[in-house]
Amino acid sequence: MAETLRIAIQKSGRLSEKSLEMIKNCGIKFGSDARVLKEAATNFPLEFLYVRDDDIPAYIRDGIADVGIVGRNEYDEQAIDLTVLRDLGFAKCRLSIAVPHAFPYKGLSSLQGKRIATSYPNILGNILKEQGIQASFVQVSGSVEITPAVGVADAICDLVSTGATLAMNGLSEVESIYKSSAVMIGRKDMGSDEKSQILDRLMLRLDAVMRASNYKYIMFNLPEEHLDQVAHIIGGMKSPTVTPLLEKGWVSVQTVVAEDTFWDDFEQLKELGAQGILVTPIEKMTE
Ligand code: PRT
Ligand code: ZN
Q1: Secondary structure (DSSP) of 72-126
Q2: Which residue of 56, 72, 236, 287 could cross-link 8, Cys pair, CB 3.0 to 4.6 Å?
Q3: Tens digit of pLDDT for each residue in 13-36?
């Protein structure tokens, strides 16, 4: 039987939708039916395993899955020896220390001898150890933010994205100790050449999808005399496509710009007389 690559995806939670969307954008077709445990893609040798995110690293280690998508926090906390294949850039969050407003926090050393509630004792433990700080951990798997109010802990260390949960529970975020986003992880040895080749094909597509999301395609009309200056602004790219317009002295320019600098570029182009600026997303982009 032909080899297939098995990917473990969170069944239902913050990572699920975006993980599946990225794979769909790779042109891979499947049902993404969250009621099933596993399913196969119809046009690519890939099988999906829908599980709890906590179980993904161990499933990969044990060969039940070959690769998977988890939060970097989950992977680092479990300290299972795999490879981070790609940082996928979504589900961004930070692991932060938060304390009740009355706590006189002056830095990590204020945690000396305190009780800290967290679901990340390994990540936090390593950071405190580096600083020579000793604290006791109250290990909880949910509702970490209520522990100071009920007298179980003096401080907490939990994931934060908007900060709304902390604010709602009367806690101040005093220090961010670690940053996380979704990562694709895999076993160091795929076990067969065929499987490694499938993984390479998947990564090639994933890279094209990720690269595309970092760029925009823009088209605009420009007085020809400003072409040199515009080329300077959108420099770093391969030369733009320039076509003359019927109106004398005007050209139409088409090029790719980075999402990061898009608004700066846009303003400068306007200043140079660019008109009818049209911006579109790019679906796939190869090198
Ligand atoms: O059921 P299963 O075990 O699969 O899911 P789960 O409940 O363990 O995980 P889930 O879906 O909540 O989170 C999956 C991953 O998403 C995490 O491991 C992180 O990598 C990432 N992520 C991104 C977050 C957050 N943002 C986040 N805000 N995970 C959790 N939170 C929680 C946080 O713990 C706190 O309770 O959201 C609350 C804070 O949010 P804000 O926006 O109020 O600051
Ligand atoms: Zn979980």
Answers
A1: HHHHHHHT---EEEEE---S-EEEEEEEETTS---SGGGGTT-EEEES-HHHHHH
A2: 56
A3: 999 999 999 999 999 999 977 678
